[in-house]
Design a protein that fits this description.
single chain; Rossmann fold; Glutamyl-tRNA Synthetase, domain 3; 4 domains; 3-stranded antiparallel β-sheet; two-stranded parallel sheet; 13 strands; Glu/Gln-tRNA-synth; nucleotide-binding; glutamate-tRNA ligase activity
């Protein structure tokens, strides 16, 4: 690729960043880094009515947590002025005016009530109201009014918008990296508003102007923007600018595969749809985040990459560095990608195994007050024994509580299975074996107890099941001899005596 690749992620600060937005940012980041280019964050806050306090900060923190920080953006390498659209509004009016002067746009004075009347009138006739070539000369705009009338309305301070004049009877031939060739009949296009009555541009104008001024070479965005491609393409042509290459990513679908994954689906189905926890500044409602739910950023990134993309091989585990090397927009699918909550857990389990046990021990200790007085080195050894069965740090307690405290009760079903008439006699013999074992190591315990079982021709289950029950309180956990070694001889004997007493 000869030109310097520049891509942008341009979210609106209207709330927390949805996981679909994170995937869009990730694909932009991977493409930019693959080609040695720049990844830009631009905050598209032209709709001030929907602005939510704290949303911009959340977006930046989410990108940083995922390990995909921007190269340019608010407060960082601002080469092209502010990267918040609300602080660039003086820029857009001149381009809207340029479009009017070139005949590609016009003033429209229709009130909300007038437009609502036309919509209802069309609905009553079984039609859909579209503001475009077939009716614009009948409506209140600078195409149907004289220059004097237009000037008088503007000078009188009447509200107006600026609309793009969609051409009639033309065929557009557009190209999308993912979708291929797209043909559009301009007769079906409406005259979109480019500039609003509040003095702010709409997304359509602002994003085109900013992409041009910030030298964006590739626009990689969600499928929901595909219907706007024709307008954006025409705006580039009307302004005489080189058009960037476009790529529209497939939708992320609900786990059922039907419908787009929404912000509400997580609460309904029991999984996060946001990278970080979010507290609504007005209602103070809390929405779950992948970070707070115990997911590793590597797992989230690896999972999201496979929502709509595949490497063309069977490999599923990729580091971010590996993804940069192999990522290719030509391998992004057109069809929607089903969100699978179990698959992201699978990824998290994998990355759990790669985490240093020292770091996991610190995190585990922080989460559980009952571990505050336990030596972190001991916790680290415990984690080494149970990590393989864990998906989250929060799983560790259920997998290892018996390393830190004696059973408070015994699982009823396990007791019926493990405790027999001769269990008391067997466990007393095991206590004697343990007391006679001077070298209290896993190997010595294993050799002595298993040797005794074999010599006395006792079924292994008759010994090992009640022994595990005594140590754990249930028939679960890692190797019995590892548990005995970790909790020590006195505690081991004490727990066996306790289960004998319960008999």
């Amino acid at each position: 690729m000869t030109k310097n690749v520049r891509v942008r992620f341009a979210p609106s600060p209207t709330g927390p960043l949805h996981i679909g937005g994170v995937r869009t940012a990730l694909f932009n980041y991977l493409f930019a880094k693959k080609h040695g280019g720049d990844f830009i964050l631009r905050i598209e806050d032209t709709d001030q009515n929907r602005y939510v306090e704290g949303a911009e900060k959340y977006i930046i923190e989410a990108l940083n947590w995922c390990g995909i920080p921007f190269d340019e953006g608010p407060g960082k390498n601002e080469k092209y002025g502010s990267y918040r659209q609300s602080e660039r509004k003086s820029i857009y009016k001149q381009y809207a005016q340029q479009l009017i002067e070139s005949g590609h746009a016009y003033y429209a004075f229709d009130t909300a009530e007038q437009l609502d009347f036309h919509r209802k009138d069309h609905e009553a006739k079984g039609k859909t109201f579209i503001y475009n070539w077939h009716n614009r000369l009948k409506l209140s705009n600078s195409l149907s009014l004289s220059n004097e009338e237009v000037k008088a309305k503007i000078e009188a301070g009447e509200d107006y918008v600026i609309r793009f004049k969609a051409p009639q009877n033309e065929k557009l031939h557009l190209k999308d990296i993912i979708r291929g060739d797209i043909k559009i009949d301009t007769n079906i296009l409406d005259d979109k508003v480019l500039f609003k009555s509040d003095g702010m541009p709409t997304y359509h104008l602002a994003n085109i102007v900013d992409d041009h001024l910030m030298k964006i070479t590739h626009v990689i965005r969600g499928e929901e923007w595909l219907p706007s491609l024709a307008l954006h393409y025409q705006l580039y042509q009307a302004l005489g600018w080189e058009t960037p290459e476009f790529a529209h990513l497939p939708l992320i679908l609900k786990p059922t595969g039907k419908g787009k994954l929404s912000k509400r689906d997580g609460d309904k189905l029991g999984f996060p749809v946001f990278p970080l926890q979010w507290e609504d500044p007005k209602t103070h409602d809390i929405s779950r985040g992948y970070k707070e739910d115990g997911y590793f950023p590597e797992a989230v990134v690896n999972f999201l990459t496979f929502l709509g993309w595949n490497p063309g091989t069977e490999q599923e585990i990729f580091s971010l560095e590996d993804l940069v090397k192999v990522f290719d927009l030509n391998r992004v699918n057109k069809a929607g990608a089903r969100f699978d909550p179990d698959k992201i857990k699978w990824f998290n389990h994998h990355y759990m195994q790669e985490q240093p046990e020292s770091e996991l021990a610190e995190a585990f200790k922080e989460q559980y007050e009952q571990l505050s007085d336990i030596d972190v080195n001991y916790i680290e050894l415990v984690i080494g024994l149970v990590k393989e069965r864990a998906t989250f740090v929060s799983d560790f307690w259920d997998l290892s509580y018996f390393f830190f405290q004696a059973p408070k009760s015994y699982d009823e079903k396990a007791s019926k299975k493990a405790l027999k008439e001769d269990t008391k006699e067997i466990l007393n013999a095991v206590i004697q074996l343990i007391n006679d074992t001077e070298d209290f190591t896993v190997e010595s315990l294993q050799t002595n107890i298993k040797g005794w079982i074999t010599t006395n021709e006792i079924g292994f289950g008759k010994v090992m099941m009640p022994l595990r029950l005594a140590l754990v309180g249930a028939l679960q956990g890692p190797d019995v001899f590892d548990i005995m070694f970790m909790i020590g001889k006195p505690e081991t004997v004490k727990r066996i005596q306790a289960v004998i007493k319960s008999l």
